[in-house]
Amino acid sequence: MSESEQSGQASVQNYIGSQWTDATGSDGTDVVNPATGETLSYVGFSTEDDVDDAVQRGQEAFESWSQRPIEERIQPLFELKALLEANIDELAELLVREHGKTFGEAKGELRRGIENVETACGMPTLMQAGHVENAAPDIDETAVRQPLGVFAAITPFNFPGMIPLWFLPYAVASGNSFILKPSERDPLTAKRLFELIDEAGFPDGVVQLINGSVDTVNAILEHDGIEGVSFVGSTPVARTIYEKAAANGKRVQAQGGAKNHVIVSETANLEFAARKSVSSALACSGERCLANDIICVEESVYEEFVDLVVDVADEQVVGYGLDEETDIGALITPEHEDRVRNYVEIGIQEGANLVLDGRDVEVDGYENGNFFGPCIFTDVTEDMVIAREEIFGPVLGLMPVADVDEGIEVVNASDFGNAASLFTDRGAEARNFRHNAQAGNLAVNAGTAAPMAFFHFGGRKDSFFGDLHAQAEDVVRFYTDETVYIERWPDA
Ligand code: NAD
């Protein structure tokens, strides 16, 4: 019996056909507050039968949902937006308790999630394809976007409130039914989201929640009744999901891990660039796929910039995410904390210079938390492990480069291609960066290249497997098939 069962706490259930039911698998895991070590709940893992049950409900729902007028299909999304707005503080607090980030960060991610619900309410426009009169003699030609059936999304732990909403609202507004499999490490936010979905008025089976881990994901990938899978998570898993889903004849979009860079030109406002770079690397304790944790600085301003970065990073307060003064919250699990600690050891062994060492940080009153203070390395070189692999913790490395062009070469040599930023005061450098840096999300004079919901979101190289990305028109195309229709009326 798990700790949460012993203490009588409610476990996290599935939401299938508008009913809350227990997963029938014998495995599961405790959900633990990463800052206090307190067990919050228990999540049971779903079996093939649970997945099959949800798929069948989803298929039944699809028959009538896909035929409803599009204006009707977006009405529950307007309700959902209002419910999310009304409950945003409570949701953010829950998210902090199970994830460890700060309250401001939690609220910020929920706001980005709500933006996706708003954008999907524009489905009557987003679903429009095209029409050409006289495509051939007396023939008019039309393309229509049509929904396909049941889709599933498998999401990571680091944005439990936002990432499900990169997919869910678009899938259902375009006429499909949708199943979410959230991370087993922080499933409580999704559970609360589905309580609000229940209130929002979707017909039974249109939106469903299945909890679980690897076996549940495999059951999703192998189920014939699922048309397509959206995945967000680490690169090795993304690659596997891409291969297995494709082998099973499904559409698939799989977003993977990252290693992102900032380039600092000698012309940049260095103080501004230092603040934004530190925030980009350390926000959400570095557990972000958009964290820019390698900074390539023009040699002429390297020493000055290092001092600025160390000063700003040293000001960061590590603590419980619900305490107002906290800048950096807890890491998700003790195992992940060990992994980040190990990367810092590797950096030292590789010969990088650890100029700020947050490894021994202690937070009064939270002795059981997975806290890790900011670590700053200087003199990082491109061949080092800490320069190439995703650390996913509050660890930042600085690297001198001859000029912005060399910085772009460092960006392009990475196996990953999720994001990159340039700080500069020169338009020509910015233009060169935009044309030549190989990453899916670029920013000039901004630390984090986060796209709004009305643009798509996805990386390149090992950061993304597939072609159509999350959010906006890309994901609508993922969730629909374009049927081309030609017509001729000989007597006309
Ligand atoms: P993860 O890959 O461990 O897990 C993601 C999901 O996959 C979870 O739902 C999990 O249950 C499932 N899963 C885990 N191992 C599996 C396996 N072997 N087979 C099938 N399913 C499996 O990722 P995480 O630790 O939850 O999230 C962090 C990672 O996600 C980081 O690498 C981060 O960069 C990445 N991420 C990427 C983006 C992006 O847009 N590219 C966004 C957020 C997070």
Structural key phrases:
globular, 492 residues, alpha/beta, 17 helices, single chain, binds nicotinamide-adenine-dinucleotide, Aldehyde Dehydrogenase, Chain A, domain 1, 22% strand, Aldehyde Dehydrogenase, Chain A, domain 2, 22 strands, 2 domains
Short summary of the structure?
The chain is 38% helix and 22% strand.
Describe the protein in words.
By secondary structure, the chain is α/β, with parallel strands linked by helices. The protein has two domains: 3-256 and 463-484, 3-Layer(aba) Sandwich (Aldehyde Dehydrogenase, Chain A, domain 1); 260-444, 3-Layer(aba) Sandwich (Aldehyde Dehydrogenase, Chain A, domain 2), CATH 3.40.309. The protein is built from 17 helices and 22 strands. The strands form six sheets. A seven-stranded mixed β-sheet has the order 14-15-16-13-12-18-19, with helices on both faces. Helix 16 links the parallel strand 18 and strand 19. Helix 3 (70-86) runs antiparallel to helix 5 and helix 3 packs across helix 8. The longest helix is centred in the first third of the chain and has 18 residues, at 48-65. The model has no long low-confidence stretch (mean pLDDT 97). Nicotinamide-adenine-dinucleotide binds at residues 154-159, 181, 183-184, 213-214, 217, 232-234, 237, 240, 255-258, 289, 390, 392, 418, 459, 463.
